[in-house]
Design a protein that fits this description.
This protein is of the alpha/beta class. The protein has twelve helices and twelve strands. The chain has one domain: Rossmann fold. The strands form two sheets. Strands 1, 2, 3, 4, 7, 8, 9, 10, 11 and 12 form a ten-stranded mixed beta sheet that branches. Strands 5-6 form a two-stranded antiparallel sheet.
Length: about 325
Amino acid sequence: MQCIVSLEKCNSYKQNEVDKAVTKLINNLGGISKFVNKNQKVLLKPNVVKGMKPEEAGTTHPAVVESIIKILKEIDCDVYVGDNPFVDDAIEALKICGIYDVCKKHDVRIAVFDRKRNNTYKNALVVKGFHLTHYFDEVDAIINIPKLKTHSQLYFTGAVKNLYSIMPGPRRGFYHMKYSNMEYFANMLLDLYLLIRKKVVLNVIDGVYGMEGNGPCGGNAKFAGILAASSDAVALDFVACSLMGLDVSNLPTIHYARKRKDYLFHEKNLKIVGEKLENIKIKPFAEAEHKTLNMMPKFVNSFKDYLTRHKEELVYY
């Protein structure tokens, strides 16, 4: 099956420039009506790993979120924006990264992932039962808006990894420790993606500025000047990782996606639309210093006590 990835250049976060690029990006794929119907409830899922200022390039830039909000508002969609930061309070993190003000400007509701519902993926290889935010069942569609970043444990973080925080509560930290083997962790991420992919109708990567070095939080801002989009998160990650000058064979979600029977992916089925690959020149991103999955960031050490206190929430089913 052909996987279509749309690319567009965008040289700054000036709102009018981002608006034009995002519109072209989505139109290359057939327009927003191909993914979302008029009057639907749509959840936008940016990358808000923690409270970081936009210029730090660790979170999705508010200008990209605003562009997508405006496109959805044109067809009278009921828009929600939310994420589950790994450390900070969700509202505070959204304020620091600038997305909160965008939501208030456009009368968009903030989705706080504080309630969960159980969802099951029968073909899972690692985790069959996931606790997802209740918004997953309450909206008609999800648009995933990750940030272009290197990752100290997964090599690269993009569309697939950004969906990990659709789980509320402490479960993400628990899975980091429980599935410290890379094969298990990558397949767990793929289990989650394949469970929710029908509702995740579109993925849009903010790569105007990305993060190189010790991402996802401790790296440096890096200009890339691109936006990329696809209905297929794995295909989008393959293209984005390649554009960064990284070795895609080191990306575990790609490696294990190729081996699965419940998801068919091969780069020979990729089709690029919009800006041509040969016209995109990006200086290679510096890789992160590799850490194993059980070498959690310092702030997570204090999180272990929290996990212990809330162990009843972590029961596998």
